[in-house]
Specification:
This protein is of the alpha/beta class. It contains eight helices and seven strands.
Length: 257
């Protein structure tokens, strides 16, 4: 039996990268899944859901940008309509819009806050309402970042959003413990598409420096982080809430600080 047999989950931003690794790991443990991505042209959520179904799993896709109440409700309604309930929410969706403080546009600031911070809040609110109404001892897992803990040059928008997610995680865990709902956050560091916009030679240098700083002497892959998601989503994590787990090996502050 899988650790998530009979459970139903939403994983936002699960068309590729970390989110896809999370989705596939949860499916292997018996979970039914709502897969989400934002890009209607790429339709990566459809592709991931098709891959899951071809392998014998249960998945449905929702292509929509997170951040709005409408998307949050659509994700929850889809889970309930397709699979009968909702037990787990993984707030993973997000992108980067980097710029220095004196150069950052309002659009760059607003987009990151809307997607990461408001999206996490709205999705959590919609999921929790269903869990409370149906007496479900659910799990919410938020994806934050070491940037939200330590800060990073050129990422004031991203740092603010990810720091806010940490604060919300701790606050929501205190609010919802009476309902048996556990809420935790993971700060991962892995090779994902978020590094694709970095010039190749600089990206290679960054990975080399990260590996050098890491006691494990490597930079993680998405599949290195996915087992942490499975644990926090499972009944095994019933005594873990309000925590921020750094799935980074041991990097601490970023090596170019």
């Amino acid at each position: 039996m899988g650790k998530l047999d009979g459970k139903v989950a939403i994983v936002t931003g699960s068309g590729r990268g970390l989110g896809k690794a999370f989705a596939l790991a949860m499916i292997r443990e018996g979970c039914s899944l709502v897969v989400n991505s934002v890009n209607p042209e790429r339709r990566s959520a459809d592709q991931t859901a098709d891959e899951i179904r071809k392998a014998g799993g249960k998945a449905v896709s929702v292509i929509a940008e997170v951040g709005s109440k409408e998307t949050a409700e659509k994700l929850v309604d889809t889970a309930v309509k397709e699979f009968g309930t909702l037990n787990i929410l993984v707030n993973n969706a997000g992108y980067g819009r980097d710029a220095m403080l004196h150069q950052m546009t309002e659009e760059q600031w607003d987009y990151i806050i809307f997607t990461h911070l408001r999206g996490t809040f709205m999705n959590s609110q919609a999921a929790v309402k269903h869990m409370i109404d149906n007496k479900i001892r659910g799990r919410i897992i938020n994806i934050t970042s070491g940037v939200g803990i330590h800060g990073n040059v050129g990422q004031s928008n991203y740092a603010a959003a990810k720091g806010g997610i940490i604060a919300m995680t701790k606050t929501h865990s205190k609010e919802l413990v009476r309902y048996g709902i556990c809420i935790n956050a993971i700060a991962p560091l892995a090779k994902t598409e978020m590094f694709d916009n970095v010039r190749e030679d600089l990206r290679d240098f960054m990975f080399q420096m990260m590996a050098k700083r890491n006691v494990l002497q490597k930079v993680g892959e998405p599949n290195d982080v996915a087992p942490v998601i499975v644990f926090l989503a499972s009944d095994d994590a019933h005594f873990v809430t309000g925590q921020v787990i750094c799935a980074t090996g041991d990097v601490g502050e970023l090596p170019w600080d």
